[in-house]
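Below is a typical protein record.
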Amino acid sequence: MPTSVMPTSKRNGPRPPAAVFAVGLRKSYGDKAVLDGIDLAIPAGSVFALLGPNGAGKTTTVKILSTLIAADGGQAQVAGHDLAGDPQAVRAAIGVTGQFSAVDGLITGEENMLLMADLHHLTRREGRRVSAGLLERFDLTEAAKKPAAAYSGGMKRRLDIAMTLVGSPRIIFLDEPTTGLDPRSRHAMWQIIRELVAGGVTVFLTTQYLQEADELADRIAVLNDGRIVAEGTADELKRLVPGGHVRLRFTDPAAYRAAASALGDATRDDASLTLRLAGDGSQRALRSVLDRLESARVEADELTVHTPDLDDVFFALTGGADVPDQHEETVR
């Protein structure tokens, strides 16, 4: 059974209805079960991140939900439409940006946009209006007349997403959208995703960059061996993994000794006058520490809360499966 936490959201108020809902999705290739019965409930106007090592089934999940391949079992609704019963309605409501760019490098950025407008059956006038607006929005106006082959990786990715938005989709599937981008381009892509969600778009994001999920996602699911092994907010997932602690630092040796006496279960570092207590980083655990200090009439000079990061969560839940270097300076 997957580790699960109650649904919450970064946004206030009641949660909107599910933009993507799935129960028991299964997919096999030969004897290999790529998806082994996964459940999803993704609220509209949110970012949902699907994490997992290579081969976990992330791309297969995107392909099924975007009607590119059929599931072997289970049920799903996307944008309120049944995936199997009304795939055309699903396609009309979604946009998909895959791992590999759909940009045609032999034509200009503007021509790529107009081609997409034709595919969406926009009139010539409307296609030019929509294309010009999206090229400006994605800071591609100056490069619009240049062949897309001359674009940088970040520019191609922006053009890719701009092309996806021509049809005004309500749900966008982004399959590892920042793979291969330099840190500046990656941060620019994050801002684009935030702006899309602020405009009411639902974003289904697969990624191997754990910081990316931490920065963007309202909810995160960890997929391993075809199953969702945990789901929750980034903070909730981090609390599933042992290793969190509260660190107290003192400058007054007498206060340090008094605190150590009051907090008998703390680990002491007499040289630096610091105490360390195991904790999950929750408000409840922190209040307990503060109440014990207050009863002892002691005040720490510095208090810091340390929780495991998503790297720790990933390795704990996937059995140490390989994941790319998460340092922001790395360029893949």
Observations:
- Confidence is low (pLDDT under 50) at residues 3-13, 322-332.
- The first strand starts at residue 3 and ends at 4.
- The chain has two domains: 3-103+151-238, 245-306.
- The first helix runs from residue 58 to 65.
